[in-house]
């Protein structure tokens, strides 16, 4: 699909996000599912970002071996231990362990710290039917790879789904090579195919073809864990009652501006993802004035 077939995306600016403020009356529950054997920190980043965005309650569902440590590291969260496969991925029957909490989770973020494409696909096949019918769902990281292998998993989540791919994951979702990813065109195709809002490198695309772009990002955000923070931000804004496109605008803008604030202290390439989290409330507070 040629780039010039699309109208120019609407700029995501402070004025735009202020025009669609997110209320504070609703502060729902975010459940983050991730944290396989080798990536225990990712759900902590996502979950803490969700709380900083305004989620009221945080639940982390991670590999059993990490549950106690994450409960101490993120004392604001309740933590559920999940079974692993022999490779250290989260096992498909983890969905059974989540049966008691999934009905009450208004927002479910799946992917931060998951590993194994086949294992994650098997987990999603068990998890998706158990998610509450009115819950919003964010898919990130290996959950996106699993979705590309089994696109039908998006069908029961249509119009309440938010996808946060990087360019590698976008290529899988779009069925192309990474070198052929065009942020705007690819995001539009993915949004239409999976009937979800897509947030790709500052571009936000809705299933109906509407698009927006935030130009505030910089190279410092291309750091390990930054995407986990972004996924958590979207989940936190959804938990406050935002619509998926609205949550994506706010998340990409707050994420980018938080990164800008750190440049004087970290330079453009020394930023750590965990440092973004402390800046999030200040950026949100300024936008909500």
UniProtKB/TrEMBL annotation:
<dbReference type="InterPro" id="IPR000631">
    <property type="entry name" value="CARKD"/>
</dbReference>
<keyword id="KW-0067">ATP-binding</keyword>
<feature type="binding site">
    <location>
        <position position="42"/>
    </location>
    <ligand>
        <name>(6S)-NADPHX</name>
    </ligand>
</feature>
<feature type="binding site">
    <location>
        <position position="227"/>
    </location>
    <ligand>
        <name>AMP</name>
    </ligand>
</feature>
<keyword id="KW-0456">Lyase</keyword>
<protein>
    <recommendedName>
        <fullName>ADP-dependent (S)-NAD(P)H-hydrate dehydratase</fullName>
        <ecNumber>4.2.1.136</ecNumber>
    </recommendedName>
</protein>
<keyword id="KW-0521">NADP</keyword>
<dbReference type="GO" id="GO:0046496">
    <property type="term" value="P:nicotinamide nucleotide metabolic process"/>
</dbReference>
<dbReference type="GO" id="GO:0005524">
    <property type="term" value="F:ATP binding"/>
</dbReference>
<dbReference type="GO" id="GO:0110051">
    <property type="term" value="P:metabolite repair"/>
</dbReference>
<comment type="similarity">
    <text>Belongs to the NnrD/CARKD family.</text>
</comment>
<feature type="binding site">
    <location>
        <position position="228"/>
    </location>
    <ligand>
        <name>(6S)-NADPHX</name>
    </ligand>
</feature>
<feature type="domain" description="YjeF C-terminal">
    <location>
        <begin position="7"/>
        <end position="287"/>
    </location>
</feature>
<feature type="binding site">
    <location>
        <position position="113"/>
    </location>
    <ligand>
        <name>(6S)-NADPHX</name>
    </ligand>
</feature>
<keyword id="KW-0547">Nucleotide-binding</keyword>
<dbReference type="GO" id="GO:0052856">
    <property type="term" value="F:NAD(P)HX epimerase activity"/>
</dbReference>
<dbReference type="GO" id="GO:0052855">
    <property type="term" value="F:ADP-dependent NAD(P)H-hydrate dehydratase activity"/>
</dbReference>
<comment type="function">
    <text>Catalyzes the dehydration of the S-form of NAD(P)HX at the expense of ADP, which is converted to AMP. Together with NAD(P)HX epimerase, which catalyzes the epimerization of the S- and R-forms, the enzyme allows the repair of both epimers of NAD(P)HX, a damaged form of NAD(P)H that is a result of enzymatic or heat-dependent hydration.</text>
</comment>
<comment type="subunit">
    <text>Homotetramer.</text>
</comment>
<dbReference type="Pfam" id="PF01256">
    <property type="entry name" value="Carb_kinase"/>
</dbReference>
<keyword id="KW-0520">NAD</keyword>
<dbReference type="InterPro" id="IPR029056">
    <property type="entry name" value="Ribokinase-like"/>
</dbReference>
């Amino acid at each position: 699909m040629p780039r010039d077939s699309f109208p120019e995306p609407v700029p995501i600016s402070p004025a735009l996000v202020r025009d669609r403020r997110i209320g504070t009356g609703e502060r729902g529950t975010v459940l983050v599912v991730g944290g396989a054997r080798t990536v225990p920190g990712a759900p902590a980043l996502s979950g803490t970002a969700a709380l900083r965005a305004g989620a009221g309650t945080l639940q982390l569902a991670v590999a059993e071996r990490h549950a106690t440590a994450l409960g101490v590291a993120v004392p604001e969260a309740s933590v559920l231990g999940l079974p692993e496969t022999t490779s250290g991925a989260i096992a498909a029957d983890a969905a059974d362990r989540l049966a008691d909490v999934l009905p009450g989770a208004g927002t479910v973020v799946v992917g931060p710290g998951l590993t194994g494409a086949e294992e994650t696909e098997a987990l999603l096949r068990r998890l998706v039917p158990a998610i509450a019918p009115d819950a919003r769902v964010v898919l990130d990281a290996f959950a996106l790879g699993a979705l590309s292998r089994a696109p039908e998993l998006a069908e029961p989540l249509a119009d309440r789904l938010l996808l946060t791919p990087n360019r590698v994951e976008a290529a899988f979702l779009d069925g192309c090579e990474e070198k052929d990813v065009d942020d705007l065109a690819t995001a539009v195709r993915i949004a239409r195919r999976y009937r979800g809002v897509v947030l790709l490198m500052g571009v936000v695309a809705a299933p109906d073809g509407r698009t927006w772009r935030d130009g505030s990002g910089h190279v410092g955000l291309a750091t390990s864990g930054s995407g986990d923070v972004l996924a958590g931000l979207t989940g936190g804004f959804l938990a406050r009652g935002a619509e998926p496109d609205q949550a994506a605008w706010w998340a990409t803008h707050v994420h980018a501006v938080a990164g800008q604030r750190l440049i004087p202290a970290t330079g453009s390439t020394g930023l750590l993802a965990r440092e973004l989290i402390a800046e999030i409330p200040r950026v949100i507070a300024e936008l909500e004035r």
